[in-house]
Amino acid sequence: MREVVVDTDCGVDDALALLILLRDPDVHVAAVISSAGNCSAAQAARNAAAVLAAADHSGVPIAAGIEPDGKDYSQSPHGSDGLGNTGLGVSSAELSALPAPALISEMADPTRDLLCLAPLTNVAAALRDDPGVLERYRRVVIMGGMGPRANTDRVLAGYPQFLIKGDTNTNHDPAATAAVAAAAGAVVWVGMNVTAPLHVPFTLFERAEGVLGEFVRSISAGYAEYATRMYESAELIVTAHDSVAAAVLAQPGVVVESEKGTGEVIRADGCSALWATGDGPHEFATAVDYQAVLERIQQTIGAC
């Protein structure tokens, strides 16, 4: 059994990623930490509670994360509520007595993994108080970054918009990403260089069955329109960045190629992205098994 602590800014793709883990009989979600990003940290906690309830896992501890000042979520592609403006997030969530950074430290154990799907604000705060916290986790999988700097031309050829807007989670809190990139630990970065190519046809969501299928289909409709425009797709699609990271966490063999390196946050024109440069201890995914990820999504939403 793989035990995991999940840090999430629970938007549409986070919800699907969390469901992938909750529906895997070989994975136990030990705690959920909410972060601000797709929506506020408080809203993300309520959304996570709704996802847990939908999957019949309401007993999982939730800690609400640090709330940045002055953030406006009204234009988020995930909707102002993070779940496609569906109102499916619960009105309140029963929260852990521990603050999010403290719970990250409290749960750190060589038998557990940490999955980070959100801006790294909480993780960086945990590192300030507990510099060795990531070393105490068996494995830390982070959805963030752009992969090796040497592969910039590949990113430019496939997704030039990324070089303009930066990578989403780093953009929200570049200093936090830099702090985590400098920390010791068995860290795997699953960047937008490997998450973006997985375009899930929305027809898959339309075929979804059962309670979870209806939940995912409802929250994904608006996000699908955004993803289709963003990636200039001829068909309606959903991008599943966080699901790729969740699959890597649950099944390490999903990463078929990777490089070791040191993460460096590059800032330009008001945008930020993490790139791997030179040698270093962290692992950066460069190729993944998309079919394995897609099969997990299909199994989760009942669209086999």
UniProtKB/TrEMBL annotation:
GO CC terms: cytosol
GO terms classed as biological process: purine nucleoside catabolic process
UniProtKB keywords: Glycosidase, Hydrolase, Plasmid
Disordered: annotated segments: 66-85
Domain Inosine/uridine-preferring nucleoside hydrolase residue range list: 4-291
Pfam families: IU_nuc_hydro (PF01156)
GO-annotated molecular function: purine nucleosidase activity
Hydrolase as UniProt keyword: yes
Name of the protein: Purine nucleosidase
Taxonomic source organism: Hoyosella subflava (strain DSM 45089 / JCM 17490 / NBRC 109087 / DQS3-9A1) (Amycolicicoccus subflavus)
